[in-house]
Amino acid sequence: MREEEHALEQSRDVIVVGAGIIGLACAHRLAADGRDVLCLERGEPGGASSRAAAGMLAPVTEAEFGEEALYELNIAAAERWPEFAQEIGAAAAGYRREGALMVAGDRDDAEALQRVRGLRERLGIASAWLTGKECRELEPGLSPRVPGGLLAPEDGQVDPRAVCAALVRALGDRVRGGAEVRHLDRRSVTLAGGEIIRAERIVVAAGAWSGDLAPVSVRPVKGQILRLRGPTVCQRIVRTPRCYVVPREDGRVVIGATVEDKGFDTRVTAEGVFRLLEAAREVLPDVDELELEEASAALRPGTPDNAPVVGEVEGLLVATGHYRNGILHAPIAADAVAALVAQRDWVGTG
Ligand SMILES: Cc1cc2nc3c(=O)[nH]c(=O)nc-3n(C[C@H](O)[C@H](O)[C@H](O)COP(=O)(O)OP(=O)(O)OC[C@H]3O[C@@H](n4cnc5c(N)ncnc54)[C@H](O)[C@@H]3O)c2cc1C
């Protein structure tokens, strides 16, 4: 079959490039709107950053000082999650909103947490300071050395692997793995094997690699993360300034994550694993008893101001740059892309 004939046969309403959680959520939302959508992924769908992620839905605790502009978006994203979880099968998504306990490992941490408390107050989500004893009443596994902490009841979690699997199932043959996009323009993509597929709109949701395909400034930010299993070490997410510990319902525990500027390097290093375990066992000593199942590393799509880029750039739609909050943002990014495709008004986030 000649290329032009192939192209005619394959014309779609929308092609989404990248099947991480952002591309999959966009494709799912577009399909729900009745669009003929195809999501193209060069590797395994849901296999890159979205596979590594802890899945915390942490609108305030995961943001850093100086990112105040993002909080409003983060909070709107967290509010959208319960409905999105229903749409894809809440049980499958592992959605829970059990809150997070931010604890201090020592006096310096306690001072840092007091600054976080001030920031939360400015944002209108005040939290009372808990003494070490009060923290241990909530989480008996905490070390007696923990001097105090703060509760963030707004935080929750999903299992990103389960979310991506549910989206892939729902999309069926509208998502294609092993399909690397080598070139694209406003109305077509060319795959590595030379196949050309046309569409009315192209959405670039290629995570840390989005800058290879669209004129956006996205850089890879490496994160190493551990998965363990064994007896329960905590009931809810426990965080310190150096790590977070996320307990899953199936007995697994996720400990993350490093933040490293190392280009496209995804090696798991001894130092990364050591630092994460050291930070976790400092506050939850029973971590020592857990079985280490997996250590992995992946690349967050970062932007110069850590804000996502969702909108139209030179005739292409882009949904990328979600940095540390891509799981949190997925439903709201998908809504925004669907609105753009439907030519409704939408105000970009940066
Ligand atoms: C260790 C770690 C922990 C994290 N924890 C959290 C958390 O707790 N909560 C949270 O909200 N966020 C978290 N994040 C951030 C979150 O994982 C990301 O923001 C999110 O996964 C980004 O999704 P994405 O779809 O944009 O990118 P990705 O998941 O990286 O997907 C992009 C996809 O595009 C594909 N692709 C690229 N180029 C092409 C091409 N040319 N052709 C075809 N396909 C292509 C890639 O193969 C990849 O599968 C974490 C990240 C890391 C690394």
Brief rundown of the structure:
Helix content is 32%, strand content 27%.
Describe the structure.
The structure is a single chain. By secondary structure, the protein is α/β, with parallel strands linked by helices. It folds into 2 domains: 3-56 and 161-218 and 305-341, 3-Layer(bba) Sandwich (FAD/NAD(P)-binding domain), CATH 3.50.50.60; 100-153 and 219-302, D-Amino Acid Oxidase, subunit A, domain 2 (D-Amino Acid Oxidase, Chain A, domain 2, 2-Layer Sandwich). It has helices spanning 3-9, 21-32, 49-52, 68-88, 90-93, 107-122, 132-138, 160-171, 270-283, 326-341; strands spanning 12-17, 37-40, 56-57, 100-103, 129-131, 148-152, 156-157, 175-176, 181-185, 188-191, 196-204, 219-229, 237-240, 243-247, 252-256, 291-302, 309-313, 316-320. Strands 1, 2, 8, 9, 10, 11, 17 and 18 form an 8-stranded mixed β-sheet that branches. It has an 8-stranded mixed β-sheet with strand order 5-6-4-13-14-15-12-16. Strand 1, helix 2 and strand 2 form a beta-alpha-beta unit. Helix 2 (21-32) runs parallel beside helix 10 (326-341) and helix 4 (68-88) packs across helix 10 (326-341). The longest helix has 21 residues, at 68-88. It is elongated, with a radius of gyration of 21 Å. Bound molecules: flavin-adenine dinucleotide. Flavin-adenine dinucleotide is lined by residues 17-23, 40-43, 47-50, 52-56, 180-181, 205-209, 213, 223, 225, 256-257, 298, 300-301, 320, 322-328.
